[in-house]
Amino acid sequence: MKTEKAVAGDRALFLNFANRISPQINRKVHLLASFIEKEKGEGILEIVPTYRSLCIYYDPLRLTLKDLKTALDQIEHELERAKKTPPARVLEIPVVYGGEYGSDLGFVASSSGLSEEEVIQIHSGRDYLIYMCGFSPGFSYLGGLDERIATPRLKTPRVRVPAGSVGIAEEQTGIYPLESAGGWRLIGRTPLKLFDPYRDPPIPFVPGDYFRFIPISEEEYQKKLEKVRRGDYKILIHDSQQGSFSCI
Amino acid sequence: MIANKDPFPVFEVLESGALTTIQDLGRFGCQKYGVPFSGAMDDFSLKVANLLVGNDSNAAALEITGLGPKLKVLNDTGVALSGADFNAALDESPFRGWRLVRVRKGSIICIKEARRGFRGYLAVTGGIEVPEVLGSKSTYLTGKMGGLDGRSLRKGDIINSSSPEVSQVRMPLRFLPEEYVPVFSSRVEVRIIMGPQDDCFDDEGIKTFLNSWYVVSLNSDRTAYRLTGPKIAHRQKADIITDAIPQGAIQVPGDGQPIVMMADRPTTGGYAKIACVIAPDILKIAQLKPQDEVRFRKIGIDEAHEFLKDKETELTRIRKVLEAQATVLTRKKYQVRVGDEVYQVQVEEIPDE
Q: Degrees (nearest 5) of the Cα angle A64, A67, A73?
């Protein structure tokens, strides 16, 4: 599938795939991004992959738009010949659900006509594709929330949502990586630090990975939080193809 | 050039001003982590201020917004104020912009309101010293990182520079010649390139966008300039599948009011982008204050790249002019009479080649 190119100002170029949100299209975005990252020569500054597009930031003083387009065509051509896609990884995200950590769990349960226990089961019962990282530091756009637990946002956003909060907004679920204001319904909290500017890279995942939420007790939460603070917590990662575990 | 050695206290903040932050040219390569560039809203003025005090053009300086800070000088050093034209004083005398000014321990720099333009830069010899976060000293306010703990300056803060470069402080004369000093206006025309989603707007909408004056709303900041004016009509809807937001992109949400995305913008967003402001004109927006007016002029991408080259050439020329000034040891003026004509002659002593 060939991309469509669109100029976005004097220093950015979009490569657009089909105008839909789908895991297949998104996989192509990330594959192309990884190819460009590898091959990028002089003048390509940064690449931002999103649902169905790649934004290439370039320096027109070092690389003309014409040469950039030629180089990208070449990379796309190589990509078509390369069939192998990297294996998807699944990251385990421990979450303490409900109580003070997820004060809207009761609301989500009652508005979906389920028990709190059922909401937790449904939410932690599937893996979520990380379509992209963006908007704010470390924020991931996840796909695939079960529509049974879809819940509208708060009418008035909270002024302060703690870092690590796991929430639901309509048919999306996500994690607040940093403390911020926010209007999502909070159902739980992870002790993991999903964004740390002093870590390299600052996020522990790459788009194209999956999150798997693992329910934990409050006691485990506190223990893991302590480990995270000391910097010796390892995130459990499943490799979807080999079925193996690794840690980062 | 910027040594990261012993911090050298240069200012105590007596009054913070409206919004004063530490900025360099920005944080690059991190948008894929959701972290925007941040950095100086008016990159040209920051670069020139740095060159005036003898720094690398990317050194960190204070970005001043609308109403400046009052600072007590803690050690002799060199400073330069650039950007907006501020009503400013050094002790009892006027503090002039676009030139190297030697300041003495105990002096008070008082930067009051901006008379023309909105943002200024106060550079100090050696550059402001704060820890780098993701490769930059720039303050990213909503992400609470960079600068002084990710926040704006407060009363009582101590600002450090890296070790002072005495030779620079001794430099007698360094100023930006008048012809290079930008003049900021409260009504500006800004050049744009259409797209990437101009196809979300009908002909009428695009005509409105290109032929109307838009007013800067009070709700504008380092993240975005929100404009109000004639409504820009969409073909169908304002929402797109979320994608990247380049700096200078003009989003138009469902209410038809354009938003120019600036240094601290979210890295991605879901509103259609009708056009993008070209890089050399972003500072024109940054120098607008609420109630000022802007309109947009469409240009082509090749033309835009020529303007970008021109801007780079201008900066190279400025760099050369300033370097030449730095080598002037003395400067004397004479009146010379030749026949009936009287000439003003200036003699500059320069070091031996």
A: 140
